[in-house]
Fold these 2 entries.
Entry 1:
Amino acid sequence: MKLQIHHRTQYDYDAPVGYALQKVRLRPQRSIMQEVVDWELRVDGGQVEASYQDHYGNHVDLVSAEIGVRQLVITAKGTVKTHDAAGVLGRVYGRAPLWHFVQPTPLTVADDKIKALSGIIRESDTVLNGMHALSSAVLRAVPYEVGQTQATTSAVEAVAIGKGVCQDHANIFIAAARAAAIPARYVSGYLMMDDRVDQDASHAWAEVHLEGLGWVGFDVSNGVSPDERYVRIATGRDAGDDAPISGFRMGASDESLVVSLQVQQ
Amino acid sequence: MCPAERSASGPGNRVALRARLVNMLSMSKGKTYFSEMTSDTGVRDPYQSYDAWFAQQDNARLAKKSEEAEVFFRSTGITFNVYGDEDAEERLIPFDLVPRIISGREWDKLSKGIDQRVRAINAFLHDIYNRQEILRAGVIPVDLIAQNDAFLPQMIDFSPPGDVYTHIVGTDIVRTGEDEFFVLEDNARTPSGVSYMLENRETMLQMFPELFSKIKVQRVSDYPKNLRKSLEASAPKNCEGRPFVVVLTPGIHNSAYYEHSFLADQMGVELVEGHDLRVVDGHIAMRTTRGYRKIDVIYRRVDDDFLDPLTFNPDSMLGVPGIMDVYRAGNITITNAPGTGVSDDKAIYSYMPEIVEFYTGEKALLKNVETYRCSEADSLKYVLDNLADLVVKEVHGSGGYGMLVGPTASKKEIAEFAEKLKAKPSNYIAQPTLSLSTVPIFTEAGLAPRHVDLRPFALVSPNGVEITPGGLTRVALKEGSLVVNSSQGGGTKDTWVLKE
């Protein structure tokens, strides 16, 4: 499937900006699931200062706002050819060791409730089936609902609230997998929802590392493993690790954020 | 009271004092310690010339010199604020005017051992952040890295110029016998105290110029020049022209601020704070009267966690946002590299002989102090049974904080510590109490033996390792005390390495 992506992030400042940086992870990379046909990161009202591969192999751009501007727009757009690999990314590894993905992070600590969810993995006949069962269990425990959680909500908090979005689902799933000593990581990317061109937001899901298979993806929110409608952008240990954009700004001026995202064939 | 009155010892009783010294040195609280100045047969070789000079001195004059030294230190502003005692007035680390003397032959052996050790530490750090061969080989348990607070995932899959992580190392060494030297700590993260090495020598040169014409002591005064050269040699590969070096300090409230400004001044480079710096055209740059100036090498004395609010602690006001991104993009060298503290962990220390052998293929030239890892059940049992005889330290601790010195601790203190130990065994290691060597200090009553350690400073760049002949000798001023840390009432001495 050939997916056209147009992802625009616009910052409006209520006063001319003095000094502002944005750390951007918005470049997809090649894998057995996707080929990047063309891709461009455009910055209006600023410039890319530095680009590099981070510790998880993500492509990072450090962007600065031009001094005195009132608007900064970061646009990631391009074409990605995707393949359905039944969610199996496989045995591809960066330098970050597997044990690193078993360690909890502040957003993915497992409390008793999450450990209880994790128990379903052991009750299944295979680990793979166990992971599918876990995915369903997480969605049952925390049905999808927008507006109940925030970007900084942890897995424990989301389970307590009992409602959440894809980010919360991924964090909880990861926390539960790690509680069973299974390496797990967070994936940010795009999903083409079949019924619309304008997507609400970037998507997120989880990958776990299973013996024999390697890394396998699970999209808890949609109850499936990623197929050809998905584009992987970045990975990390939790939602905080590989945020598509995180920033630093000096001064007391307020900013407002408008994001638009189109994913279509 | 004038200094002359305070220690009015005329030439008449000097001989008596020196005779008493020899007796005092061999025994302290019934335990025998190695005395660096004297042996059973008289004065040891490295101290011969100094001893001959000392015999000619007038105690009252020396006492006066001692007071002058304090005035000198106060006027230079070299003070020290004890951690954990924030309200306390900044105070001077006491300086003792009797030098600690090391022969050229002894130094040769020591410096070879240090060279080997810092090369191994750099190889270890590069391995830990890249292929992790030492973990795959099972030489070090994965948990020691996985549970290590100083391990920074953000350093994974990155190689700094020349694969150098620790550019400035301060190896803590103790001596227990004629040929018995042990490394106590490696201090690869942020060794401090080099300003004392330089100031102590400067003070001695001013007070006793005649001594230095009589005795051939190797120079330490090249350190700032060599530090700058070493930092410049560590610049990013794409740097053109002479690399621009700065020292980054957390600011005037930091306990080592004096050293930061001293080193910048001595090297002839700028001392900067985080708010002076910005990302400009892909580099970290410093604000100047003529706009922003690109920085190639930053000798930072800001801890990892505060270094970059965009990557680490977002609340940090001391750091430079974006510096980690510029670093990974290869446009600045950060010294010492972030994540270097992994090797300062005391549980990692216990594996240093294995680490040296793994990366150099040679046996470690310098010995480790025997170390019990409390994470291991057998060791924990032994440690709990023998707390009164052991020194127990936190694996991430430094500066003498949070440790138990069994032999001087009360029963209550030992019992309380045992509970902490049982609650989190992997947080502790234990070592036997070391019989630290003694060097005399000058007191009102004459010379008196006190325990010492030694922190030589090594500089590492892609061009190699350079070790300054000398170092910081710390001395426990309290009679019988084995704790030399300045935060625990220790003082310092000038350290002489003889030319031959």
Entry 2:
Amino acid sequence: MTHTRTRPRRVSLDEVLARLGEPEPMVKAKVQDRIDDHSRRFLAHSPFCTMATADAAGRADCSPRGDYPGFVKVLDDHTVALPDRPGNKIADSFRNLAENDGVGLCCLVPGMREVLRINGSGYVTDEPEVLARMRTEAKEPELAIVVEVAEAYFHCGRALIRSRLWDPASQALAEEIPPIGEIAAGQFGAGGDPELLDQLLKDGYRKLY
Amino acid sequence: MQQTVIEGIDGVADDVVALTLRATGGELAPWAPGAHVDLALPNWLTRQYSLCGDPADRDAYRVAVRYDPLSRGGSEYVHRFLRRGRTLDVSLPRNHFPLADAPHYLFLAGGIGITPLLPMLRAATAAGRPATLLYVGPSLDSMPFVDELRRSCGERVRIVETRRQGRPDLDALAATLDEDTLVYCCGPAAMLEAAEAAFPAERLRAERFQPAERSFGPATPFEAVCAGSGDTVAVPADESLLDALAHAGHSLPSGCREGVCGSCEVAVLDGAPEHRDDIGAPEGRMYACVSRALSARLVLDL
């Protein structure tokens, strides 16, 4: 089946709030307006985050960012920066930031259930002193994204507990998904040789910086 | 790797901490003045620091780390996030800056560059050789181990605070030296350049912390033959020998990946390497992270 005939029912915000009830006061209080020492230590050990942006019309996008732990650099208590490493050059995040500076980050530390969330406004920089701090394996990124922090807070660990994300046994799930070459061949249409595509992608992965 | 526990993280000057790394089992590997070790930091970075403790103490190593505001994650991690009591893997000591035998020594230290020279001065003093240390920094507050040096080596130590006194005149100093004085210099690039201009190359030994700005011709592809397995590995122009070997299943240890630390040293059995490192590869050796080939193929002892 590729299409549902009737759309799922839409619930209004009032009804949603009525069903969820009030948040605990502690949950509201945990939202910081800065990167405190705990957040700083967390970021120093985080090798991965997702970055959400949206264009002027509100069309949203979320992309993964990964590097050595500490790749999200804390420039000061109110500012962080992420390197832009070689990727697919689609530049969705850059296009969005040019129209709409809203950014949301979810930063993860392998083995840690709680997630550090940072929301703020972002822009692109090529400031040498920022790029110099991102030099990795003898390569500096050409660009970085600066995020001026409006909110930073630790999100509770339930999602990661339920998902068993750090349980090594969970990695068996990946065995049930075909190799990316096969997926690409299916999505690009006829003519793609899955094994060749798989090899091309793997070759591409050799150049990380 | 040797396992140690971080016994002390002590401020020894503004923005400088000394780490005391105690052995967790048996004695630590011996070392001689000028040696450095790699610290395998918890954030996956490997950083090189000169050993600046007492070589006779086989139970602990000491290194000193200056905080760099442009830190790429090494010194920042050590200063802000490293915890006392944590274990830390430390490499075997390597020495690219050994103290050669000489009748007279002059040691030139710039700031944190004191670290390899401190045990050298002690060793030269203990051997009864005339030795002088010129220790240069902006001000006493920023210069580690000044008291320790004054206590142990007294009048052999001359301190210059550039903020008050300006930079020392190395040319004038060179003119007063005995012909057979060996000069050891470790410090920032400007000091190394001044030393290179003032002292004859054959009497100067220098150690760099950061790669010198140099330019090379465009990288060209070549082949690396692994003598042991007979594998031939193609090294494309845009990939390092280190990476190409790793992808072909021949992983070498690696650290800085920019030709400073020497972790990825490999023996060359045939062919002409193009050395792009800052260490000065010994005959028959090369550093796979940066160095390439002048010949179409290299035969490596792998």
